[in-house]
């Protein structure tokens, strides 16, 4: 039986290898690349939210069975010790009877061990029963990711198919875990939190699928922040400069006014008129200079606002693209669920 199972596993492995090789050959012949990913089922199960609880339940049952086995072993050892002690006082018939009873208990113990911990025992059966729902969730998540990201093959690293090398960038395990965790938390989250989580998951998937894109986006965000900071600094500097100019102009006007007051008694009416005209001309010149500087500052401010508006429009376009990716993924998932539901209904009919 064991040889037959091993033969089936070996044949399955060679069949998968042949299938992959055939797919690569066909893709190369058509000038297309084959997109391959893999998961580590053992790693996913260890990290899955529901696995710890299922594992704990199974360990509690196994502990009870082990205690029952120890009780049986203790009883058998006690009977053996009693037989060895009383052997000289017993007849051959009684000795044979007790040995037969001990042998029966030993056989019963072996049968019980096989029933609980054997290859087809209760432990393996209940383990499969407890883990199967989690495995089904993993398979569903893998199918959704594969369809959304256009993967041709997704292998299980922990299965019988030996993988001599696997690059980390093709590992989908963490992405599958995010899907499982999101599904569990979705019932406890508000609609706003669900949207934020989906947006973050989309960014995480983009990072896993194309790390360079995230790095480029990070650099763009840093450049944007630097531009905004520079614009704010220029704005503050312009405001301070404008204030300094106004203060200096007021001071100059005040000084001229004071000088004009001191010379008022020694100047005649004509002199007063000339001084007043000069003061007015100077004030007009200062006003023109201030107006020019103010206009220049306004132009710079308008240019900064236009650049900010352009950056906001680009950000809006990126957000719309991400939103469309999420909507397409949800749509594909719904279509798949409807197809599965329709297929089940057809099978029932």
UniProtKB/TrEMBL annotation:
What residue spans carry the Basic and acidic residues bias annotation?
A: 188-202, 213-226, 241-271, 292-349
Which InterPro entries did the record assign?
Chaperone_Skp, Skp_dom_sf
Q: Which GO terms describe its biological process?
A: protein stabilization
A single Gene Ontology CC annotation of this entry is: cytosol
Signal peptide range: 1-29
Q: Where is this region: Disordered?
A: 188-226, 241-349
GO terms for MF: unfolded protein binding
Which ranges of the sequence are coiled-coil?
Answer: 55-115
Task: Respond yes or no to whether keyword Signal is given for this record.
Answer: yes
Q: Show the Gene3D superfamilies listed in the entry.
A: Skp domain
| Key words, A-Z | Coiled coil, Signal
Question: Which family does the record assign?
Answer: Belongs to the Skp family.
PANTHER family per UniProt: CHAPERONE PROTEIN SKP
- What is the protein's name according to its record? Periplasmic chaperone for outer membrane proteins Skp
The organism is Flavobacterium cauense R2A-7
Lineage here is: Bacteria, Pseudomonadati, Bacteroidota, Flavobacteriia, Flavobacteriales
């Amino acid at each position: 039986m064991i040889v037959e199972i091993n033969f089936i596993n070996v044949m399955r492995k060679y069949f998968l290898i042949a299938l992959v090789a055939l797919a690569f050959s066909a893709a190369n012949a058509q000038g297309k690349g084959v997109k391959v990913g893999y998961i580590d089922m053992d790693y996913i199960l260890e990290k899955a939210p529901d696995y710890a609880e299922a594992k704990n339940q199974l360990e509690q049952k196994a502990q009870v069975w082990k205690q029952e086995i120890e009780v049986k072993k203790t009883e058998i050892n006690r009977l053996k010790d009693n037989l060895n002690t009383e052997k000289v006082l017993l007849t051959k018939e009684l000795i044979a009877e007790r040995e037969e009873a001990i042998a029966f208990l030993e056989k019963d113990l072996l049968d019980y061990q096989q029933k609980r911990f054997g290859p087809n025992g209760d432990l393996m059966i209940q383990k499969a029963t407890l883990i199967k729902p989690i495995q089904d969730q993993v398979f569903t998540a893998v199918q959704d990711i594969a369809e959304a990201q256009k993967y041709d093959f997704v292998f299980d690293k922990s299965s019988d198919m030996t993988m001599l090398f696997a690059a980390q960038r093709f590992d989908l395990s963490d992405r599958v875990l995010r899907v499982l965790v999101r599904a569990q938390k979705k019932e406890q989250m508000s609609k706003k939190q669900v949207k934020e989580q989906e947006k973050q998951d989309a960014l995480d998937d983009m990072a896993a699928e194309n790390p360079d894109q995230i790095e480029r986006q990070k650099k763009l965000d840093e450049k944007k922040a630097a531009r905004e900071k520079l614009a704010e600094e220029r704005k503050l500097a312009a405001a301070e400069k404008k204030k300094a100019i106004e203060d200096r102009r007021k001071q100059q006007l005040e000084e001229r006014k004071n000088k004009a007051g001191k010379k008022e008694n020694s100047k005649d009416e004509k002199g007063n008129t000339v001084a007043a005209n000069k003061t007015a001309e100077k004030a007009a010149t200062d006003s023109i200079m201030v107006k020019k500087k103010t206009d220049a500052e306004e132009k710079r401010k308008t240019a900064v606002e236009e650049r900010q508006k352009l950056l906001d429009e680009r950000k809006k376009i990126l957000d719309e693209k991400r939103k469309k990716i999420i909507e397409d993924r949800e749509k594909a998932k719904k279509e798949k669920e409807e197809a599965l539901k329709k297929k089940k209904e057809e099978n029932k009919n």
